[in-house]
Amino acid sequence: MNTEALAKQKCVPCEGGTLPMPIAAARKYLPMVHGWSLSKTKDRKDVIITELKFKDFKKALSFINAVGRIAEHEGHHPNIQLYSWNRVRLELYTHAIGGLSQNDFIVAAKINKSLLDR
Predict the structure, then answer these.
(1) Does 1 reside within a domain?
(2) Number of domains in the chain
(3) Which end of the chain is more exposed for a tag (fewer CB within 10 A), N or C?
(4) 87-92 and 79-83 as β-strands: parallel, antiparallel, unpaired?
(5) 15 inside domain
(6) Residue 53: C-alpha distances to residues 33, 42, 92, 110 (Å)
(7) Per-residue pLDDT tens for 9-19?
(8) Is 46:99 a contact under the CB 8 Å cutoff?
């Protein structure tokens, strides 16, 4: 699978009790979402993150709103942080399973394709 194919997929609901994606599988998806990296939350959940710097507050806020539209369409929502007036951090993981799923990479690919052209 490549980035284009990943971005064309649709998120599917995950239920509690489903196991998170193994880190080895996440590493295989990571090259398809340029600019994202693997990280861990404070409570040691695997996540993917990206951090972006914008020209000004207005552009950062516009980007956040566009990410929100993608997230609502997919039913899969990132953690979003706006800081230092022009910096945005996005963190994706599947809350229902406490770790990564293919949905996280689908949303990251859609954000890249639609908003960042990465």
Answers:
(1) no
(2) 1
(3) N
(4) antiparallel
(5) no
(6) 18, 23, 18, 19
(7) 999 888 777 89
(8) yes
Amino acid identity, position 9:
Q
Q: Is residue 84 part of a domain?
A: yes
Mean pLDDT of all residues in 29-58: 95
Q: H-type helices in 1-118, by residue range? A: 3-8, 23-29, 57-74, 102-111
CB 88 within 8 A of CB 51: yes
Q: Report yes or no on 28 lying in a domain.
A: no
How far is 76 from 71, CA to CA, in rounded Å? 5
Find the CATH number of the domain harbouring 75: 3.30.1360.20
Range of the domain at 48: 36-118
CA angle 73, 75, 76 (to 5 degrees): 115
